[in-house]
Amino acid sequence: MSATIASTSGAPHTAILGLGAYRPSRVVGNAELVDAIDSSDEWIQQRSGIKQRRFATEDETVQMMSVAASRAALEQAGLAAAQVDAVIVATVTHLMQTPAVAPAVAHELGTEHAAAFDVSAACAGFCHGVALASDMVRGGSAKNVLVVGVERLSDILDLSDRGTAFIFADGAGAVVVGPADEPGIGPVVWGSDGEQLDMIRQREDWREALAADDPQMPFLMMEGKAVFRWAAFEMAKVAQAALDRAGVGVDDLDAFVPHQANMRITDAMARALRLPERVAIARDIAEQGNTSAASIPLALERLVADGEVKSGDTALLVGFGAGLAYAAQVVKVP
Ligand code: UT7
Question: Does any ligand 1 atom lie closer than 6 A to the CB of residue 187?
Answer without folding.
Answer: no
